[in-house]
Give the backbone structure.
Amino acid sequence: MAFNYAEYIRPGKLPHIWCPGCAHGTVMKSIIRAIDRVGLEKDRTVIVSGIGCASRMPGYVDFNTLHTTHGRSLPFSTGVKLADPGLNVIAVAGDGDALAIGGNHFIHTCRRNIDITLIVFNNNIYGMTGGQFSPTTPHGKLASTTPYGNPDYAFDVVELAMGAGASYVSRSTAYHAIPLERQIADGINHKGFSVIDALCTCPTTYGRRNKLGSAVDMIGWFKDNTVGIKAAGKLPPEKVEGKILTGVFRKEEKPEYCDEYAKIIEKTGGRS
Amino acid sequence: MSGKDVFYQGNEACAEGALYAGCRFFAGYPITPSTEVAEFLARRLPTVGGAFIQMEDEIAAMAAIIGASLVGKKSLTSTSGPGFSLKMENLGFACLTEVPCVIVNVMRGGPSTGLPTGPSQSDVMQARWGTHGDHPAIALAPDSVQEIFTETVRAFNISERLRTPVILLTDEIIGHMRERITIPPEGELEIWERPRPTVPPDQYKPYDISEGIIPPMADFGSGYRYHVTGLNHDETGFPTNNPSLVQPEEERLMAKVTENLDLIQKYEYFEKPKARIGIVSFGSSARSSRAAIRMAEEEGIKVDFLRLITLWPFPTDAAVQMADKVDMIIVPEMNLGQMIEEVQRSIAGKAETVGVNRVDGDPITPTQILDRIREVA
């Protein structure tokens, strides 16, 4: 039986603001299915975002939703979670939101290991403002503010999250909607900070300028240019060279922030 | 039942007042001269089942307290000049989304890093207009350690009842000064809670003003699922750019303050018969003013004194009352003339004004004010 998204979409809030061909809707659907798979209670789930195309997602879904300021989804999420650790907190952010203006919050939330799941809608561009280069725009690519090619180098979300100490780190793509769903569910179930790098596409402001073909071509590119990390170990190096690795890069059990704070409350004789 | 006497620093009194008011969440970032508020609450909050968190920066701390408040916890952050600047964007978010929270700014010299250990009162205008856009502003400025305690309680009360951020403006002098204070027994000071919905969740609209201009606020996680956004929004909480909805929304945010002046405005007016000179001051400069007025009286010069406890919304009527009587109003403040402009605006030429201003990191002394009194007498 087809999945019933209507149960999770707020009546009257669609159509969304995303452009035709944008992959954000696919990622949103993976998030919805993951929440359903885990069986989160709507009343006890909070979805938090910052500013940008991806950050409009919470408005469409029927949870406690919080659309905050640019880059700040994680510190708002941290306040929500620590104030009521029983809540399920999911943060969504674009690549600019999560890694440029919100970059400091990103690394420190990784370090803190608080039980929040972050999904980065990573489409390599600032879409809402019309196609300026972001921290994940590859070197040399064109954007409205890099008309001669991007002189910057891109962040690798997975490496950044691992280096900063996130306890769950994975990557999938909008082409791999089912594995993405599984990773998000896994991240929600994981006790600690989870980062899911969800590669997606912006045909309107990135693909067109860089001649990456149609929206379908761009999604198809993920199929041909990614290798699962398990498979990568068994393949000859030339088959892995230049490919983007996907899969679960880290899943580590370590004490979670709210649990640690609960111990402090207990130690000091407080009642939580 | 009598209270408990303690010998407290102003910053400690602020933290104790927050606990008394029911604050159960603090997020902050170290900054002189406010850090003792954080240190005190790091020790005490877990003992009452609350939570303390030191965030990665000032912006994050402001964000975290708004998040915690949405869950229903009374929340506080403390900072000083440069940190106050960093909090401005999220302060505006709290204004527009109507999330109660209290921000303590222990003022130090500026601009920029300025004088980190020196006192100042130079954030008066930033407290009013620091965040972008039109927005309501409430700022309270106690002048003693005891009053820091009671005004912190009042800051929480006002913030909760009006669903808007409240700023407590202290300064390095009263923040670090120690005085004996009495912590009142539980129940002696009134504690207010935010209005919460009485309708069932399916009928709840987060910005429904059919019962009054302060809409009831549901806690996230309590069964009332709703949307909060920093975009202009309609009564359901969802974004709108409909001019006929945005204009009344913005005007209502202001009206929450202007229609509740009695609740917010607090000042003391000490009148002397036939005084022709008045002083308007606040915070630690009010302490020097009080001494200067005594000294002037010994010389036979009578001076009226208006001590502002609420700076924003500015108690215009009190300033006018003074201007109707005296010829000259002296405004001592540790800045280069911020509050004096508000006094001038309020009194619209009914009296002359002159400042006593100091920004060198030393307090305004009673003698400095006395000199000015003599000049104009």
Remarks:
- Chain B touches chain A at residues 24-25, 27, 45-51, 53, 55-57, 59-61, 63-73, 75, 89-90, 93, 220-223, 225-231, 238-239 (CB under 8 Å).
